[in-house]
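User: I would dearly like some help making sense of a protein record. This is the protein in question:
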Amino acid sequence: MLNTAHEVEADEIEEGVGGEARSHEVDLVLADVQLRLDYGLSQTLDLTVILPLRRVSMDAEFFDAQDRRLPGFQSIHHRDEVIAGLGDLALEAGLHLGGGLTLRLGVSLPTGGVEPDPYALGGLGLRHQHIFFGSGTVDPRLGVAGGWRVAGLELRAVAEATGAVYENDDGYRAGWNGFGQGAVATSLGLEPFVFVARVGLFHALPSTWNGRSAENTGRTDLLPGLAVEVPWGDWFFSVEASRPINLVAEGGQLDAPLVAGLAVGVRLPVIPPQSSP
């Protein structure tokens, strides 16, 4: 669940039910499901396809100059609604370099929905949407991951980055973002359970609309978290939670008190085993 609140600029004040809205507050509940397929071509090369499915539920409230709630207020900027759809399809190739390291290169394709410039529409007094699930561009992706066993522990590390190199047809350009994470995993003698402690750092440059920075898009977060993994034959299960700690927020404020996740995977044979002669 996320929360964002901001004061209204003098030229954006709206008159409606109960008076003038001088501040907005929006609660958002985000759900992100990723369908992922990994296919090993050889001992050193694999291919990955990732399809995100996303849903956002929004609850908007409006307040006057005395910070009194304005029930029933209608705004062109925010509203109570639910939106859902595809994100951008990602294609990646993984090159296993040896020594526990894997290099990943890929692209995301513009399969997710996009919106016209909300700041241009807002300037004309027209209803608009700030939330959407695609970038409208073909964006590069790159990363590196590693895993090592040391003194009965499994050490893990990952770093990845993605971003747009040009604007889409509506003038939107997704800002570059990078993520790095280190983790320690151990069974604590309770096999098959694996307990993971990790800490990550996420940094995103602001996205832009025709050169104007979009609110709530430039930020740096520290991401401590815990997870429990259970490998079971060809199946894999994981439950995880992290508490984002915002270090820098540019152009607005967006608070995320908790992020929880569930992962389920299965290894399937592509080529059936040959029978003995």
